[in-house]
Amino acid sequence: MAGNLSVAMAPKDTTFQVRINSEIKKTVEEIYARTGMTLTDAFNIFIQQSINVEGLPFLVTQNSKEALKEQALAKLMLDLKKAEE
To answer: What residue ranges of the chain have pLDDT lower than 50?
Structure first.
């Protein structure tokens, strides 16, 4: 079953190459470096989360930014309500 796979523990026995614009690569490497991660770390996390949820690990819509903002606000409001109780 896919849910039992661990990217961190699995032997590394193949290579995956991606062509990307060098400026974009540099920018995203800087973003991840601020969190102590490499681009490879971030990619492996993406792959692990894809396995965990058996799909994309984030919501994709025409207006994903707004949908994610609404979800975050709804969760925050729920957490605040639980804290009050």
So the answer is: 1
